[in-house]
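Sample pair:
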Amino acid sequence: MELIAKALCVFLFASLVLLSTGQANGDIQLGPWVQQNAYPTTGYQYDAVNHQGYVYVAGGWNGAALDQVYSAQAFNDGSLNPWSGTTSLPEVDQGPGLTVHDGYLFASTHNGEMYSAPIVGNGVVGAWRSEPAAGFEKGGRLGTEAHNGYLYQFGGWPDADNQEVFISAIDASGHLTGWSQTTSMPQGRQHTSVHFHNDRAYLVGGITGWGSILDSVYSAPVNPDGTLGAWRQEANLPTTLWYHNSVIVDNSILLFGGRTGYNSGNVTNIYEGEIDPVTGVIGNWQTIGSMPSSQFVQATGVTYDPTYNHVYVIGGGDGSASYSNEVWAAEIVPEPASLAMIVLVSASIICRRRA
């Protein structure tokens, strides 16, 4: 019996090592997609955000630019209440950049205008206020992000390459104090996923002003004064990608849909790039699932609710003149190996006690 127990302990320790190694390859998994209450209008080029249990979506395009702003309350099972209209944007915009910071929404339009609005509560957005603009055509979908008391504007929507990055402090009343330029992106790009994690900024995919679709990924450190340091190249995407959307969950960036060419190449995959929590390096990208709709995969609104651990996909386009009002939710579920890991760790403790 003693030999059997020792052999079992050796097996458990070996399995523990293998599982620990496997964890480095990513630990995000999506549960099944569940359809939610439809968005009030069809459309795409949404840039959705989540704040205190509510999902907010603004603007967009369905053959014409939109100024609508809607919100929906989320619940612990991932379900959403019916959508409610709240204060519209001051102007229509085909794909505004939307971000949230300290109870205020910020929206940048593709022509460069910048607006802020307080979130009053219960999904209600207060009056929009005009803010200083970073510059003409310095704005638009996905390129506006807030981090640690600063608002950032990456690139824009011009015909020529635009690789400039602008930064403004946000004061206690949610106003911008004025823009200054920080370290430019390695190349001009728009429709680029922008995320901040552990005081690094990440750029993923996009399209240049001249129409080249990118597979490159970069990151840069955020200095104490909010400025950006030198850009470092991370692992390339498995394919060129734009018209996608993305969220950051724990130590991973998740990419949803998009297309690989200027007018073709719909992408149904969901990709994960795991960020090393110490070095900030993204070593590889892997496919972890598929979009809930194989048709409307372009420029969907995507946001993550960390309170109830669900990701939401809103609307989307198919590359023609068809647009969706479907809304889907999927739970971020634990890696199945995690439970086995707990069992193995417990068993290893028992084995050490027997030794």
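Residues 10-25, 337-355 have pLDDT under 50 and may be disordered.
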